[in-house]
Amino acid sequence: MANIASQKKRIARTAREREENLRFASSVKTQMKKLEKAVADGDDAVADEEHRRLISRVDKAIQKGAMHKNTGARKKARAARVRSGDLSAQPKPEAKAKPKAEAAPEEPAADERADEAAGSEQPDSAEKS
Fold first, then answer.
1. C-alpha pair distances (Å), 109 with each of 46, 104, 106, 114, 116
2. Are 20 and 66 within 8 A, CB to CB?
3. Which alpha helices (DSSP H) does the chain contain, by range?
4. Nearest Cα to 23, choosing from 52, 66, 53?
5. What is the Cα 113 distance to its own chain's centre?
6. Domain 11-89 - what CATH class?
7. Alpha-carbon distance 50 to 56, whole Å?
8. Do 121 and 115 meet the contact criterion of CB atoms below 8 Å apart?
9. Which of 23, 31, 33, 81 is disulfide-compatible with 89, CB 3.0–4.6 A?
10. Residue range 51-68: mean pLDDT, rounded
11. Centroid of chain to Cα 127
């Protein structure tokens, strides 16, 4: 815990700002769900209104610094795809990377095996007298 008064104030301010940012992000998610529901119900007037509200919330979140402008652009593009009725608007779940199997012990190359079988090994440089 901070002992300095200014640090206590800073901690409180940071907590307040974090909560505000989370509220913006949450409202964007909620509005996106409302848009998806309106499109699924087939009500164009409601879908248009929900789309307009979503774009407004995304723009406000960007303006307040709660959301990066590229993230906002991506969300608005997805909203436009949902509004147009494109079913592929939902992001595809990413395939989880399969864990790599343990590396098998390396086998000598074919030409090395042939040399060993023929008995024509090269003498090591350390064995020179």
1. 69, 14, 9, 9, 11
2. yes
3. 5-41, 44-64, 69-83, 110-118
4. 66
5. 48
6. mainly alpha
7. 10
8. yes
9. 81
10. 95
11. 58
Residue 36 to residue 14: CA distance in whole angstroms: 33
* pTM to 2 decimal places: 0.61
pLDDT band at 99 (very low <50, low <70, confident <90, very high): low
- Average pLDDT over the chain, rounded to an integer: 82
Name the pLDDT band for 85 (thresholds 50, 70, 90).
confident
- What is the residue whose two structure tokens read 């990377």? 97
Q: Which residue has the tokens 């640090």?
A: 7
Angle at 96 between CA 94 and CA 98, to 5 degrees: 150
Using alpha carbons only, give the angle 89, 93, 96 rounded to the nearest 5 degrees.
160
Interatomic CA distance for residues 40 and 34, integer angstroms: 10
Instruction: Report the pLDDT value the prediction gives residue 101, as an integer from 0 to 100.
Output: 62
Nearest to 54 by CA among 37, 74, 29, 87: 29
